[in-house]
Amino acid sequence: MINIVLFGKPGAGKGTQAEVLKAKYNLTHLSTGDIFRYHIKNQTELGATAKSYIDNGDLVPDDLTIQMLEFEANKSEDTAGFLFDGFPRTIAQAEALDAFLASKNQKVNATIALEADDEILVQRLLERGKTSGRSDDQDEEKIRNRYQEYNEKTAPLIGYYQNQNKFFAVDGIGAVSEITRRLSAVIEQL
């Protein structure tokens, strides 16, 4: 099995690339954003709690995120691997993911970061917000708050995965197919 963490700021293209990569490599795509939206749409207790954080542009707490992700991963036993999108976002989440995968005799094989300039990403999200209906994509202040949260809580994961020789940076600007080629070059060397 191959397990990949797709990493990057909101709007970097993780969801778009995940759709391509899951088909190309027969991976199960686990997007915390999709999982949160499912629970919010279906008005589950977990969804209501997650929504209160998301609406303020804050990250959902680790324990809630981990609980939902493990539930989804356990439903996908017959897979060539997992593509984690939007998770982990903190060192604590990375450690929880390592422990969860170790319990299944697996590990994270690589963390691949889609890198892009903040100003480009803000414009991408504001544009996406016009059609997505996502409140966190329609307010520039909330978007910038998400980037501040990312810089404070998520960016330290770079060092965490670099220390394990599992971190790879990829330019996230360009045509979708061009970015896919860059990502595939990393995955195929694993």
> Would you give the CATH topology?
Rossmann fold
Rg (CA only): 16 Å
- Return the CATH class: Alpha Beta
Helix content: 55-70%
**Largest sheet data:** 5 strands, parallel
Order of helices and strands: EHEHHHEHEHHHEH
Function: Catalyzes the reversible transfer of the terminal phosphate group between ATP and AMP. Plays an important role in cellular energy homeostasis and in adenine nucleotide metabolism.
InterPro entries: Adenylat/UMP-CMP_kin (IPR000850), Adenylat_kinase_CS (IPR033690), P-loop_NTPase (IPR027417)
GO biological process, one term: AMP salvage
GO molecular function: AMP kinase activity; ATP binding
Task: Explain what this protein looks like in three dimensions.
It is a single chain. The protein has 190 residues and is an alpha/beta fold. The chain has a single domain, classed as P-loop containing nucleotide triphosphate hydrolases (Rossmann fold), CATH 3.40.50. 55% of the residues lie in helices and 14% in strands. The protein is built from 9 helices and 5 strands; from the N terminus they run E-H-E-H-H-H-E-H-E-H-H-H-E-H. It has helices at 14-25, 32-41, 45-54, 62-74, 91-102, 118-132, 140-154, 157-162, 176-187; strands at residues 2-7, 28-31, 81-85, 110-115, 167-171. A 5-stranded parallel β-sheet has the order 2-3-1-4-5, with helices on both faces. Helix 2 packs across helix 3 and helix 4 (62-74) packs parallel to helix 5 (91-102). The protein is globular and about 40 Å long.
Key descriptive features of the protein:
190 residues, alpha/beta, Rossmann fold, 9 helices, 55% helix, nucleotide-binding, Adenylat_kinase_CS, Adenylate kinase
